C-alpha cells in the first residue's frame, strides 16, 4: 500500500487532515471514503487495517480526521453528528476534484451511521458498507454515563472517553435526537448496502444491524463478524472485513473492463504512448502487466521483462522437479526455486573490462522440503538442468520479426 498525506477544507473553511491509501501495483479502479468511529481518528488501527485491505484489492481509500479530531482543525466541542456527515460530503467533493469521485463509502460505528446519511447526498456513491453501526445515533449517549444528565442540565460538560478528555455541548445531544439511521437507510435509492456486525458486540448490540437491515431497501446484504469485538482491533479481522467489502462491492460499483487484446500467438504485449513502461500482457489465457522500477522512470506495476524471464525459469524448474519426483515416488513437500539475472564474466581474463567478455547469467538456488539422500539430491540437481526453459536458454535460438496489419 502506498500512503500519502492530504488536506482539504470542510464547509466552514477548516482544514481537515487525511491520508490517501493507494494500491501498490496498479492505478486504483475506484475510490472509497472511510468514516472512523466516535472520537477515533484516521490512524486508529481498524481504520488503517481495513483501508490497507481495500487498497490491496485495487481501491484508493481516503481516511481522514473529522473536524476537531486528530490532526484536523476546528473545535470538537462545536461539532456534532450533522457536521460529521457534512465532512464526508466535503471529502467526496475533494476526491472528485483532485482524483475521481468516490463510488464506495465505508463507516465504522458512529462513522457508519454518518455514512448512511452522507450516502444519499453523494451522487457518485454506488455502494455503502457499515461496521458495527448503531441504528440510532443517539445510542452514543450511553457512553457518557452520568455525565449525560450534567450536559443536558448545564449545557456542556467534560467527558473522558478512551483515556482522552472531550468537551461536549448540549447541542451535540440535540442534534443526535433528530437523527434516525433507519429512516436514512430507507431513503438509499439505488445504492447497495452491506451491514457488518458482530453478535458479540457489547458496545452496539447486533439488534441495531437488524433494525437497519429491515429499514433498508434492496439491494442489501448482511455479514456476521462472529467472534470480533466492536472496535475491530484484531488485525486479521480487520483485513477480513476489508476483503469482504471489496468482494461484495464488486457487484455494485463500476469496474473497468479488462482490456482485450487478441493474438494468434501464445503471447502478446501492448503499450500505449502515454503509459510509459507499463505494458499489458496476454500470456495464453491470462492477463498481466510488465513494467520497470520507479528509479528508471517506470511505475513498478509489474515485473520487469528480465524478472518475467527469470520467473519462467524458476516455475519451469519447480514443475520439472516435482514431476520427476512423483514419477520416482519421492515425496517433495515443497520446492522453491530462487533465481536472479545479471551479466557476469565468463571466465577470469586480462581484458575483462570489455563488454563482450560478459555473458547473461541466471543464478538459481533450489530449496527442498523433503527427506532425500545425497544420491537423490544429486539427481534432482541434474533434473533441474533438464527443464524445458533451461534447455531453451542454452540452445541456439532465433527471433523472426515482421510487421502485421
What descriptors fit this protein?
alpha/beta, 405 residues, 15 strands, Rossmann fold, three-stranded antiparallel beta sheet, eight-stranded mixed beta sheet, 25% strand, 3 domains, GMP Synthetase, Chain A, domain 3
Question: In summary, what is this structure?
Answer:
Pfam families: Hydrolase_4, OsmC. The protein has 405 residues and is α/β, with parallel strands linked by helices.
Describe this structure in words.
The protein is α/β, with parallel strands linked by helices and 405 residues long. The protein has three domains: 2-249, Rossmann fold, CATH 3.40.50.1820; 260-302, no CATH class; 305-405, 2-Layer Sandwich (GMP Synthetase, Chain A, domain 3). 31% of the residues lie in helices and 25% in strands. It has eleven helices and 15 strands. It has helices at 45-56, 81-98, 110-119, 147-154, 170-177, 181-185, 207-215, 235-249, 305-328, 374-384, 388-394; strands spanning 2-9, 15-22, 30-35, 59-64, 104-108, 127-131, 156-161, 164-169, 192-197, 220-224, 267-270, 279-283, 286-290, 332-345, 358-370. The strands form four sheets. An eight-stranded mixed β-sheet has the order 1-2-4-3-5-6-9-10, with helices on both faces. A three-stranded antiparallel β-sheet has the order 11-12-13, with no helix packed on it. Strands 7-8 form a two-stranded antiparallel sheet. Helix 7 (207-215) links the parallel strand 9 (192-197) and strand 10. Helix 2 packs across helix 3 (110-119). The longest helix has 24 residues, at 305-328.
